[in-house]
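Here's what a typical entry looks like (Arsenate reductase family protein):
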Amino acid sequence: MEIWINPACSKCRSALTLLDAEGADYTVRRYLEDVPSPDEIRAVLGRLGLEPWDITRTQEAAAKELGLASWARDADSREQWVEALAAHPKLIQRPIITAEDGTAVVGRSEEAVRDALGRG
């Protein structure tokens, strides 16, 4: 299990606290320092079953600078979104937990973190 975190994020800290309390075996990835490649973002999206715009923090300053609100959310624009997430990792929703069963969750709630724990 791997968890992508921003240490400054309270949701990330809460997820780590819960993982520790449950004795989970996991690896921390500080994704702002160890920035995921476009291929890694595509892989996580596949595991999440989501599109890049589904995990984009659209209220971040970088999102506004890029004008993401006006970007199309369709198959033709998917790569543009992936590239934006790789170039501006602050835009990636957090925390993202990859489970051992090949799936992933956005762990913004206790329920989502517990869901990832239940997937092994």
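The chain has five helices and four strands.

More examples are in the samples folder.
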